[in-house]
Write a structure and sequence with these properties.
alpha+beta; Jelly Rolls; Arc Repressor Mutant, subunit A; 2 domains; 13 helices; 12 strands; globular; DNA-binding; AraC-bd_2
Length: 346
């Protein structure tokens, strides 16, 4: 039966073994950098992936040999992909470096990744089902929307069992779903993901109290909308939103304080402008001033501490943006529709 939903297939089986990983790296490269773990691994490499566009979610199943996945700060700023990725690890293991911690996930685990954050994982030979969700659809339902990266749901818990079964069943049923059915299924899946992950202790980040969620989100949205204001700080925020400074400090204490949050958001905006071809004509100091940094020396020091390079080094190292009109991938491996879906989500 022909699929009613848009479907995208990648299958390297018809390529000579040494060419398979190169083809996969080019395809998945729309949002992840990948590398093999050992010299010679390309001689045994194989990969297969099938994806469906379910409403505005990308639902996939992928099986491949061991590899390393990365999203570095420059890549995050450059491609502007701002989605969540939830994975059901059917087989294999994943080791993840997150800040100063190391996380290990066994088979059966349900794991969340925030694609607006960095990613550093090593997968053994694996088989997984994943769904990529635009932030605008999931974040409003989360108690800790900025703390999902590296969070995991106990697969033996009630919500864990429900979510694992839902993901697997939705993938199996996708070929028979109409677009109207897919839209309803997407809503149910997102609600279930929020339910499952709201019951998980955060891997790092937001306030772990659901009662403060709406207030915290209101402050975060205000901050993001006023980053260019030189006077943005506790006094301005408290006065504009009608909350006390003490309450403001308590809300942001678990993530390092309100000042640190403002600085992080400003640094991310500066990074985005520094690697943008459209902003190449602007001086580094001009970009810093535009996002609220009044002292270029302080900005340069904070930027290097956060991203490991000076602003000028980042600008020189930024690769050109990937073209959306690249020629089609080798037809022997399928299509690359999933790339356009990812770029267009949200």
């Amino acid at each position: 039966m022909a699929a009613k939903l848009p479907v995208s297939l990648f299958d390297a089986a018809d390529l000579p073994s040494p060419e398979r990983f190169a083809a996969w790296r080019e395809s998945i490269g729309v949002f992840l950098d990948v590398s093999l773990l050992r010299p010679g691994d390309e001689e045994r490499y194989d990969c297969w992936a099938e994806s469906y566009l379910v409403d505005d979610l990308v639902l996939s199943r992928c099986a491949a040999n061991a590899q390393k996945f990365d999203r570095r700060p420059l890549r995050v700023a450059q491609d502007s992909i701002d989605h969540y990725m939830i994975q059901l690890l059917v087989e294999g293991t994943i080791d993840m470096a997150l800040a100063r911690r190391s996380l290990s996930f066994p088979s059966g685990q349900l794991i969340a990744f925030d694609l607006a954050d960095t990613m550093d994982t090593v997968n053994s030979d694996f088989d997984l089902v994943s769904v990529i969700i635009p932030r605008r659809r999931l974040a409003p339902l989360l108690a800790r929307p900025d703390s999902l990266n590296g969070a995991a749901v106990d697969p033996l818990s009630g919500t864990g069992r429900l979510l694992a079964a839902c993901l697997a069943s939705l993938y199996q049923s996708a070929p028979q779903l109409s677009t109207a059915e897919a839209s309803a299924a997407a809503v149910a899946l997102i609600d279930l993901i929020a339910l499952a992950f709201n019951g998980v202790d955060p891997a790092g980040g937001d306030v772990p109290v659901a009662a403060g969620r709406a207030e915290l989100l209101r402050v975060q949205n205000f901050v993001k909308a006023h980053l260019a204001a030189p006077t943005l700080g506790p006094d301005m925020i408290a006065a504009a939103l009608g909350i006390s400074r003490a309450r403001l400090y308590r809300l942001f204490a678990p993530i390092g304080g309100i000042a640190e949050y403002v600085r992080e958001q400003r640094l991310r905006r500066c990074l985005g402008d520094l690697v943008s071809a459209k902003q190449a004509h602007r001086q580094v100091a001009e970009i810093a001033y535009a996002w609220g940094f009044s002292d270029p020396t302080h900005f340069a020091r904070a930027f290097k501490q956060r991203f490991g390079r000076t602003p000028s080094e980042v600008r020189r190292a930024a690769p050109p943006l990937a073209r959306r009109d690249r020629p089609s991938l080798d037809p022997r491996v399928g299509d690359r529709l999933h790339e356009e879906w990812l770029a267009g989500l949200g």
